[in-house]
Amino acid sequence: MLASPSLLLTVLQRSFLSPMTINPTLRPVRPSQFSETLKKYSGALVPVIVCVGIALVLWQMLCLSPESKMPGPIKVIEQTWRLILDPFYDNGGTDKGLGLQILISLERVAIGYSLAAVVGIALGVLLGVSKFMRNGLDPIVQVLRTVPPLAWLPISLGVFQDNNPAAIFVIFVTAIWPIVINTAVGVQQIPQDYNNVAKVLKLSGKEYFLSILVPSTVPYVFGGLKIGIGLAWLAIVAAEMLKAEGGIGFKIWDAYNAGNEDSMSQIIICVLLVGLVGLVLDRLVGWLGSLITSDN
Fold this sequence. Notes:
mainly alpha, globular, MetI-like fold
């Protein structure tokens, strides 16, 4: 028995024109926060891992020759494994682990850099707001900032007669100049409209400082602080190599003078550690700057 045409038409209409029912299990699933974070960091870490791996392979290949004075990365790890596993040993005197040597250097940097930040910001603000002081002190700043850090070491040793304050002074005098210059430029870059509004509202000196000067100059100040921390770390390592008791710079020079079979490996591991700590310090100051800038 054949179906009537009207019945076939009704079936076709229900088949093709009825609303589709979507299976909930077939709906696209939004990526979780963990997967998004993993994707974000993997995109940043993969290039670093690849490039570091290539650099290590090239380093190892260049040191395969028996006549090579430079140990490869495998030999460096083998000869400094004890230093890596026990970075905080203390046998008395200057015989300390890498971790303790880094802490000694960081203590000196913290004191010298903090003094440079306080004095540098204050002097930079003065140069920025006073044309007379800017014209008078600018030549002095430009001359002193070009003096290499180690050139200050004999002067500081002659004045302080002690290695520790001499090293702190070298850090201070090395790190202060980018802070002064960047702060002064930041003060000069405050829009004139802001100053006009401050005059109209009759803001007090404290209100002008907190409401206009600080928010406007923070990016410039932290730019100088970021440059200063790199120079401070560079200066302390160089100063400790020449004249200091303890510190990572002292450890490098002491390993060289020892002339042992593993001396070159110890120097290399110390240099790599110096670079890693410098990177952390740079990122830390940059992160603080972006945090404060976003709040302002």
